[in-house]
Amino acid sequence: MIINTKEKILENAEALFNKYGVRSVSMDDIARELSISKKTIYQFFKDKDELVTLITKGHIDRERATMAEIKNTTSNAVEELFNLSHCIREHIKEINPSMLFDIQKFHPNAWALWLEYKSVFIKNTILDVIAKGKSEGYFRQKLDAEIISTFRVESIELSFDDKIFPRDKFEFTDVQMALFDHFVHGLMTVKGQELYNSLIDAKSYESN
Fold first, then answer.
1. What CATH number should be reported for the domain whose range is 1-45?
2. How far apart are CA 160 and CA 167, in angstroms?
3. Any idea which fold 47-207 has?
4. CA separation for the pair 135, 53 (Å, rounded)
5. For the chain, domain boundaries
6. Which of 44, 68, 92, 105 sits at a 20 to 30 Å CA gap from 131?
7. Which has the closest alpha carbon to 83: 92, 95, 74, 91?
8. What whole-number distance in Å separates Cα of residue 73 and Cα of residue 31?
9. What is the pTM of this model?
10. What does the pLDDT look like over 127-183, one tens digit per residue?
11. Dist CA 111 CA 123 (whole Å)
């Protein structure tokens, strides 16, 4: 029962943060959403910062598991990127763009987790897939993997910046996918592009 209560708090708080942003949601809001007292929340979490940090860690752990599964169940680098594209598209539908900004500004512990995940895990994943794609002949041999992987991890964060992509002008999903597509197509040889297009066509056929 205790574990279930803690998990429900984490789950509902994350849903509220995704919908409204972190700063806009108070502990009172979370308690009200769950029909429990704020005191009950503080039995499990020292403060809002700890709650945000644990939610961030949980989100990152799920992302790691998803990316590992994609890597282990695809036969080549192009298919891996294609499946990652679909995964990204689904995940960003649930994210409030202001959430990352709020974490950066107000929750340094959670932000440190995000930076480590971005600069180490995501970057190493990209470096691995680039090396794999080169060996398969799908990616251009002269690519500088270090530069391209750095560009990719920084573009993820860039898409959340309201000063660069204001929400009244750009759809967050469109920005994310445009940057990802630019990254993907910049990697590929003609052989890789043909395979990628065939995967897109197959996916479109399945959807009809």
1. 1.10.10.60
2. 10
3. Tetracycline Repressor; domain 2 (1.10.357)
4. 39
5. 1-45, 47-207
6. 92
7. 74
8. 40
9. 0.86
10. 999 999 999 999 999 999 999 999 998 988 888 888 899 988 998 888 988 998 899
11. 17
